[in-house]
Amino acid sequence: MVQVNEPSDPYGLNRDHLAAIRLNLQNYLWGDSLGYTIHPDIKEDQGLELGIGKETGAKSNIQLDGFDIDIVQCPQPEWLPDNIKFHTWNAFEEPESDMVGQYDLVHVRLFGINVKNPEHGVEVISNLKKLLKPGGWIQWEEVRSSASKVHKINPSVQAPATDGLLEFVLRESRKYRGGDEVKASRRSASGTITTRPCCGGTSTRSGCSPSQSSLEPQLRGTEAGAKYSAMVMNACEEARQGAVIKLGRLALMAKLA
Q: Cα(127)–Cα(114) distance, rounded to whole angstroms?
């Protein structure tokens, strides 16, 4: 059964078990193709080395705090190492006083779907900056639509649905903004934070991958939604023949002076 969010819920996607599966697989695919979780320059600057996990017995003096507007999809606290905690926080609101100036690194990934305009993005960046210690970093990663393309194992593979799906997703995604607004917000954010882009290649996904659900909630019940669902199913078949969508990525890194 699909859990549909209430109209007042600002989260654009679902929170059911399929959404949890999507997030887990998406996290693996993204990290595996990017080649790192924390950018090497940040690790060198901060001396960050992650060693966590009850099963491995690894120890770490790093505290990892995860923040989301709703943590219903997070594991139960009893299943986590002692140095990992999850907290409820809306990034569009001021952080609590005990969060301010506490972190060496704030890592944001695929949050752009929530950023509707540059002013929205400046608001988020301003709040994220407040979490940082002096010299702390923000690492923000998004899909780079302009670098996304259809990849085939052989030029002779016919993939009209996959071609159409990519064109459709890019067109519809522009209506919900996202990565472009994050970059505009970066240019608009003032003051004590300096940024630089770091492009990280592409990740490969089939048409029926975790990205399938990214537009589905917004399009549900519309003519465009029916067309989208049909293209996804056809693209799944074409993926078995060797045609997939390669998503471009953009990582923005910023250091608090």
A: 15
